[in-house]
Amino acid sequence: MQKQVEKEIKRQEKEEAQMRKLQKKQQEEALREQKRREKEEAEAKKQQKKQEEEALKEQKRREKEEAEMKKQQKKQQEEAEKEQKRREKEAAQLKKQLAIQKQASMMERFFKSKKDSGKLQKSGDNDSADGPINKNEVPATTTKIDSSLSQQENWVLEDIRRLATFPDLCFFHLHT
User: Fold this and answer.
1) What is the pTM assigned to this prediction?
2) 32/83 Cα distance (integer angstroms)
3) Where do the domains of the chain lie?
4) Under DSSP, is residue 19 helix (H, G, I), strand (E, B) or coil?
5) What Cα–Cα distance (Å) separates residue 65 from each residue in 54, 58, 60, 106, 113?
6) What is the spatial distance between Cα 3 and Cα 18, in angstroms, rounded to a whole number?
7) How far is it, in rounded angstroms, from Cα 17 to Cα 23?
8) If you placed Cys at 104, which of 34, 82, 116, 164 could pair as Cys (CB 3.0 to 4.6 Å)?
9) Using one digit for the tens of pLDDT, what is the confidence trace for 62-86?
């Protein structure tokens, strides 16, 4: 009987050893499975982080492109405005130049007509300019200026043009 008891003890010890071995194997397997899952999770997190970084880079790139596009549009608009102002300034200068030329031409015709009529009239006509002004008559000051200018025999077109460049001094002031 003792042998049987010893055998039973050995059998129980063997079963317990197998049981411990099986538990150890199960624990190792569970540990390997846990490490595998942790590794997968870490890889998934790494992948997600990479995707987020790429999305952020793409968003920044788009924002940079939009900012550059807005900057370019603003620059083009400013250039267009400058060009328009330049054209307007040129047009105003051309208009002013044409007005001056027109004024010089009128003065030249006036001087020619005064020169011709001045030969026929005497200087005593100047006194009549000081009289009352009709609606159809030229103001006395203008008449006096006209008279003194018409007495100048050697007026040339260039003198008239120079005089026309100072409209404040001219007696012909065109309103444009």
Assistant:
1) 0.39
2) 75
3) 2-123+137-164
4) helix
5) 16, 10, 9, 61, 71
6) 22
7) 10
8) 164
9) 999 999 999 999 999 999 999 999 9
